Amino acid sequence: MNNFENEAELLVKLRLSINYPNCRSWHLGVETSNIINFKTVPANCKDYVEDYLITSQQYRYDSKTVCKEAYFYAKGLALRNDTYNVWIFDLDDTLLSNVPFYAKHGYGTEKHDPEAFRKWLEVGEAPGLPETLHLYNNIQELGIEPILLTERFQEFEEVTLKNLKDAGFPYWRHILFRPTGSNMKTANFKSKERKKLEKSGHTIIGNIGDQYADLTKDNPGRRTFKLPNPLYYEP
Amino acid sequence: MNNFENEAELLVKLRLSINYPNCRSWHLGVETSNIINFKTVPANCKDYVEDYLITSQQYRYDSKTVCKEAYFYAKGLALRNDTYNVWIFDLDDTLLSNVPFYAKHGYGTEKHDPEAFRKWLEVGEAPGLPETLHLYNNIQELGIEPILLTERFQEFEEVTLKNLKDAGFPYWRHILFRPTGSNMKTANFKSKERKKLEKSGHTIIGNIGDQYADLTKDNPGRRTFKLPNPLYYEP
């Protein structure tokens, strides 16, 4: 290792130890993709995140604004009828909420615990997000079909389908899971699936998710919509 | 005009008349590019914008977080020495602030007045933004040269150079203005100039601006950073 690499490594370590004194600024940085690749929410921002998600309900207002904007965009389009007009929905923290899980695990300030998260998924009781549920219903009235595209592994299919139906999401043109055990990154997996959809006669009118990994790379859709999420970063 | 187009037009009109009841949500929507193509700040959000920019200083905290993140990113890189390592800076509301102008014009709630704005530019007294000034100085210490890329017309070159120097920005490898009278869109103009730079031996390490038009299309740079701006939208 030369000196420069050594210095760079030290800086990364230093970086992780820095507190963000203004948690609202930290959060805006996350939502705008200025702050990326973080492993946990800064320890001093736990109360901010709880207030944002639960106490102040700002999370709900912010989600509603995004979903309304998405609906007005879709409503203003002249849709072609020689294609399958579809809308891509991410699943976790887009249709179904993992907030109850994170509320018990320090609101993102604790290191991610894959085993505990797996158990949470297996219970299949994640609540639906009401703002996205409105969008999901309203785009169907416009003649646009939902496609659910998730980084969840295929092995969770059964519990996920039941959870979705219980939460008010009974229909999809397709639901696409990641192959169990795949180590493909979310952004690459989703981009590949979207490309297949467009090659097979679908037009991706819109694409909504809570992570930039849902919305970037090739074939993102005619417009993308970013839901808020201050809890974690999906690379 | 067929019925569908008629309906779409009506919806656009309807859309413009909608208030965003939660101005913080409206602003987050703008910063995340969920809300685009708006002509003015919603009338009910004037106080929010004034508070954001002036009273609460949240604007300063948010800008500082972005600029710090940009600096840490740059500091962690191993720079090649067989290329010109450069950083692209937008000008208006990135290096120089037009907040004093907008403070006298309803904080973005009034229809844009090109004549009044022209007079403001001709005075050449826009203050420097201190957070970006830090970044501008610090990247030069790392061996990265600033390139200023602005949608301002060439005709404003003289007053702009003086304004920049007065505000603490004395150096640039290049400063690139839009040809006077050009109706090329900002995003296209900037993308074209960035492509020319990369073809002529420059590596765009980073790119910072307050509008998505500064940061999108081809050759955006290795990483882009979005400064906050609740005042206007540049298509």
Automatic annotation (TrEMBL), chains A, B:
Q: Which UniProt keywords apply?
A: Glycoprotein, Signal, Storage protein
Extract the GO molecular function terms from the UniProt entry: nutrient reservoir activity
Q: Which domain of life is it from?
A: Eukaryota
Question: Which SUPFAM superfamilies does its entry note?
Answer: HAD-like
The record's comment on protein family reads: Belongs to the APS1/VSP family.
Q: Which CDD domains match?
A: HAD_VSP
What InterPro entries does the annotation carry?
Acid_phosphat_B-like (IPR005519), Acid_phosphatase_pln (IPR010028), APS1/VSP (IPR014403), HAD-like_sf (IPR036412), HAD_sf (IPR023214)
Which protein, by its recorded name, is this? Uncharacterized protein
Functional summary from the UniProt entry: May function as somatic storage protein during early seedling development.
> What Pfam families does UniProt report for this protein, alphabetically?
Acid_phosphat_B
